[in-house]
Structure formats: C-alpha cells, structure tokens
Specification:
36% helix; single chain; six-stranded parallel sheet; Rossmann fold; 309 residues; alpha/beta; 2 domains
C-alpha cells in the first residue's frame, strides 16, 4: 500500500468555477487515471473574484498541497494563474483551449479544432487538436438500452429562439420512432414554458427539468441512450453525446447570421457523417441509423500526455 501511494503522481486542476471548464479538466484527469495512478486536487479560483484574491488563494494552495507533476486548466481567466503555478512548482502546464497568450508558454495545449480558423498554424510543440472539447463521458455498450434523449438549449450569442419550429422538429423525431422510450431535458437557457409545451403535445415523452435532476442524471441518461437529438446551440452536448456512443441528430435553431466556432465544428461533424442534421434526416431518416465510431478524445489526449511525462 505504501508503495502504491509513493508511486502515485500528483495532478492539480485550476477551476474558474464554470462547470463546463471544470468538467473538461476532470475528463482529462480521469482518463489519465485509467492509465496510471494519479492523485487529483481541484483548486477553486472562481471567475469574477479580484485578481489579487485569486492569486492569494493559489499561493495558499501552493504552500499547502503536495507538489504536482502536472497542472490542468481551462478558461481564459486561468491563463496567468496556470503559468504562475507552473513556474512556482516546476510542474508541467496543460491548457484545454486555444490560449489567448503565446502557445509556447504552456507545455501542452489541447485545442478544439473548431476554435481555429481555416489555415491557422498549429505546428507548435505540445499542441494537439481535438474534435470538440474534452469531456467526462465514456462509451459503454453494456449500458445501452435502446432509449432516446432530447437535449434542449436556448437563445445564445450565435442562435435565436423559435419555440414553434423547435417543437415541430421534436414531434417529428419522436413520432418517427414511437417504439423508443423518449426523455427530454432542458438547460438554464431554455425559456420556461417550452417543456410544458412538449408535455402537452407529446405526453409519451418523459420530462426531466434540469433544475429537478441530480448532477449525475444526464451522464447516466446519455450513456444509456441509443439516439440523442441535440438543439444546434448546445454544441458541448453534441460532443458529449458522440463520446457516449449515441447516434446524434441536431435540431435546427435560427442562426444569427454570423459564422461562429460552434457552427464550424458542427459543419465539420456533418461533413464527416458523425452527426445528422434535421434537414438531412427529413430527406432520409435512415441516415441516423448508421453506426459511428464513438469519440474518445480524453483518452487519446491522456495517452499523448502519458507518453511525454
């Protein structure tokens, strides 16, 4: 037992308090743990606090925690904190995004491909492009039960909201496969009355409001789903559904007209036949039945790291 503890390597995660960013870091940390023993420590440095307060909390952690071998972070507000922590502890630094500082200042950068414009240079040591953001989902065929799930977002910087059009799409996909057990959940951005409209129109769909579900509910529901339909604005959920091994359809949302990194990512997934848009599905519903290889970007990046640490 003592030998196991002595052999365990130390990993820090700098969290800006945003669940999506922290889940990216935890996804990589958990994948590393599947390769060799790691002891993770999450340091909370919430976005919105003063710079002085955040650096003070980081210095306290440096003084109290065991020295790390690597430090992982995501989010623009963590950049200088990550660099400082790496300098103070001599640990290797890992950033899970396109940095707003020089890439070469970080030891490793795992950058979603859609964050880069076409033709952007990537030939920097330690820089790896990923299909979407790293996440905590894993494909497990043993838990698949043939169910289907609908994941609904809401208005965003890139998309407007059209409840009637979205409800028409939801009804179309549900009625096309009445033999499946359908469930639906929303996000904090979803207008309040949308789930009520779904329930009134499609009583066979089980409704799970996000505010009434446990933090791990979606992981289980998405992991067991054979099919997932995701609203176009919820790009992170598209990649999580693909990682979970679901066959993924994308419900159209009215774009605001400006190309975004998310729309670039979805266009690439569609061109590679990894997702099916609602428009294409309407023309040929069999497109959604094709088997697809699940994403496993966290494991791929963990292997890359493990070979170089």
């Amino acid at each position: 037992m003592q030998d196991d503890i002595a052999d365990m390597r130390i990993l820090w995660i700098l969290s800006d308090g945003k669940r999506g960013h922290e889940n990216q870091s935890l996804g990589l940390a958990e994948a590393l743990g599947r390769i060799q023993p790691w002891s993770p420590h999450v340091i909370d440095l919430p976005y919105g606090g003063s710079c002085l307060q955040r650096f003070s909390r980081l210095r306290e952690a440096i003084a109290q925690l065991p020295r790390p071998d690597i430090i992982i972070a995501a989010g623009h507000s963590t950049h200088w904190l990550l660099l400082y922590a790496g300098w103070a502890t001599r640990a290797r630094t890992v950033l899970l995004m396109k940095p707003s500082l020089r890439r070469r200042w970080f030891d490793f950068c795992f950058i979603p491909r859609h964050d880069l414009k076409s033709g952007a240079r990537t030939e920097v040591e330690g820089c790896v492009l990923t299909t979407g953001a790293i996440n905590r989902m894993r494909y497990d065929p043993a838990v698949k039960n043939g169910s289907a799930i609908l994941l609904i977002g809401g208005p965003s910087r890139a998309y407007n909201w059209d409840a009637d059009r979205l409800l028409e799409q939801v009804a179309a996909v549900v009625r096309a496969e009445p033999q499946r057990r359908w469930s639906i959940t929303n996000s904090p951005r979803t207008p309040d009355d949308f789930l009520a409209k779904v329930k009134a129109t499609l009583p066979e769909v089980e409704v799970f409001p996000v505010e009434a579900t446990a933090s791990d509910w979606l992981t289980g529901a998405l992991g067991s789903a054979e099919v997932a339909w995701v609203s176009e604005d919820s790009v992170s959920m598209v990649y999580e559904a693909l990682t979970a091994g679901a066959r993924v359809g994308v419900l159209a949302m009215p774009a605001k007209g400006v190309e975004s990194k998310h729309s670039r990512g979805l266009a690439e997934l569609s061109a590679n036949h990894q997702i099916v848009t609602f428009g294409d599905w309407q023309k040929d519903p069999t497109l959604l039945q094709a088997a697809r290889r699940p994403l496993a970007e966290a494991d791929r990046c963990a292997r890359y790291l493990a070979e170089r640490l």
